[in-house]
Amino acid sequence: MPAQLADYTPIVGEGVVSELRLLGECLSGKRVINVNSTRVGGGVAEILNRLVPLLNELGLDTRWEVVQGPEEFFVLTKKLHNALHGAPATFTAEDRKVFNEVTDANAAALNLDADLLFIHDPQPAGLIRKRDARPASWLWRCHIDVSAPAPGAWEFIAPMVERYDLSVFSAPQFAREMKIPQVLIAPSIDPLSDKNRELSESDIEAVLTRFGIRSDKPIVTQVSRFDRLKDPVGVIKAWRMARSRFDCQLVLAGGSATDDPESVAVLLEVREQAGDDPDVHILDLPPTSNLEINAIQRASTVVIQKSLKEGFGLTVSEALWKRRPTIASAVGGIPLQIAHKYSGILTYTIEGTAFWIKQLLGAPEFARKLGENGHNQVRENFLLTRHLRDYLLAFLFASKGHPDHADLIRL
Ligand code: UDP
Fold it and tell me: Predicted confidence band at 405 (pLDDT cuts at 50, 70, 90)?
């Protein structure tokens, strides 16, 4: 049975849970609808899966809808996603037409009757065009790193975004110059989900055996969708450099998201790069593999997150929560989670990543300390309860328009 609010008390304390209940009372009965573009795969779906039931438990009448579309729509939105992350792209009148037509079809198919519409990322952002005279608050939640978009990318979505009442970004450097208010709310992980809860040694061992991963040899892991922005090929290169000094295995555990048409090609590239090295384990996992990912993260000697761009990188908090020494790129929301050489390691290059893999494999006590500090960092800042609190405050602000509520939101 999924965790209920009271189950979090032993982890975060009575005060945090009581405060959530109080805030819930202020919004009791409000009809909230979340809209994103996939139910499985990626961090947004991961968060909504847990957030929606807890909002309902707090008394908000909360639904979660997903926009649908033909492949050409998701090819376009993936291009937009990459361009918002900085990859050069051009957007044509035909792109705009496809986007608007799919938006209109979704607006007609979805029941958007709610007090608060919480729209996630660019794919469903156009639903705002269907805003009518009914009193409702529209919030746009941006989960991606929009600090340095390619020319034309932000301009593609800005006319829609600026019609919302409030925008929410994950990190200060993503804030944009806009006519509407913006708040900063970092994402979070759920310590009680199958992805993150404690596991027994025998559960972990069973997963390793199932995937043919040895437990008597250090394991270096990256968990990520097969996406070029996660740089899985760079991880293989860094691991190869480190392996010349320390005998170790590499696990690349991933899958795809239904809104990402590129993952098949990326997985092929990864397999090609890995060759038939028996120490490289490439796991193409179904979206239900939460326990498996949990076990692999817990079994890892070192966890890598070598993203080239990253909105937040839930996988970093997942690894830190499990006290894993973590080496991650200093991009997007990752530096929010890791203080270099204190709660993990921040790197900029393949060579830097290789250097730190060797350092951590050679200094287990330092690695253990990083993991311990990382765990505390997540406990303080990146658990679901803090996230829930910030969203409730944002909902209050949006529905009452009272500036004092925004002041209460802390990053
Ligand atoms: N994930 C998963 N299966 C996979 C790959 C990733 O369940 O094959 C999960 C991962 O554990 C994390 C989320 O998907 O919870 C990815 O979120 P993140 O913010 O790291 O990256 P995103 O995919 O949203 O870019």
Answer: very low
Cα 196 to ligand 1 centre (Å): 12
Instruction: Please count the helices (runs of H) and the strands (runs of E) in the chain.
Output: 16, 12
8 A C-beta contact, residue 194 and residue 291? yes
**How far, in Å, from the CA of 189 to the mean position of ligand 1?**
11
**Are 111 and 48 members of one domain?**
yes
**CA–centroid distance, residue 293 to ligand 1 (Å):** 10
Same domain, 173 and 242: no
Residues 167 and 217 in one domain: no
Phi-psi region of 57 (alpha: psi -120 to 50; beta: other; left: phi over 0): alpha
Which atom of ligand 1 is closest in space to residue 41's alpha carbon? Answer: 14
Distance 41 CA to ligand 1 centre (A): 6
Domain that holds residue 184: 5-188+383-408
Mean predicted confidence (pLDDT) in 36-40 = 94
Radius of gyration in angstroms for the set of CA atoms belonging to the chain, rounded to a whole number = 21
Total domains in the chain come to 2
- Ligand 1 pocket (Cβ < 6 Å) reads 42-43, 46, 195, 223-225, 253-255, 285, 289, 293, 312-315, 318
What pLDDT digit, counting tens, does each position of 304-324 carry? 999 999 999 999 999 999 999
Here the CATH number for the domain that contains residue 146 is: 3.40.50.2000
40-75 pLDDT, tens digit per residue, is 888 899 999 999 999 999 999 999 999 999 999 999
Whether the predicted pLDDT of 406 surpasses 80: no
The alpha carbon of 149 and the centre of ligand 1 are apart by a number of angstroms equal to 22
Residue 193 is assigned to a structural domain of this protein: no
In a shared domain, residues 332 and 374: yes
Give residue-wise pLDDT tens across range 142-175.
Answer: 999 999 999 999 999 999 999 999 999 999 999 9
Residue whose Cα lies nearest atom 17 of ligand 1: it is 43
Residues 175 and 208 in one domain: no
CA 26 to chain centre: 28
pLDDT at 262: 87
Please state the φ and ψ torsions of residue 219, each to the nearest 5 degrees: -120, 125
Helical spans, DSSP H, in 58-92: 71-84
